[in-house]
Here is the input.
Amino acid sequence: GGFTSTIELSVVSDLNPPVVRTTTLTVYEAAVITDHSPDDLDQFVGDSVTLSCTVAGTPAPTVEWYFNGEALASGSGLTINGGTIDIPSPTTDHSGMYQCFVSNIASEVCESIALQVRRPDPPVITG
Here is the structure.
């Protein structure tokens, strides 16, 4: 949600001819994360996982993802689409701290999501 409101303020003097001054005021709404994946996710190797950050603000916020403190881009088995990371077949290399960094002209905010990708326990054979 949010809004941008432009208001024109005019001041007219009593002088002859009148002097008119006009200015514009634009109101911005801070960037916010309205919903996100749980803070801690535990996933098995190969089981698809999606990390998400739903954002709002005016102007529309930009979303940047970080993995263990480093800027993250699509590749290495994952796809980033704005506030969503899809990992169709995660490996243990995908385990770590993901951060959704959201910003616009009015503010910045960050949310962290810890992902643990582990191998399933081996089957127990009893005889």
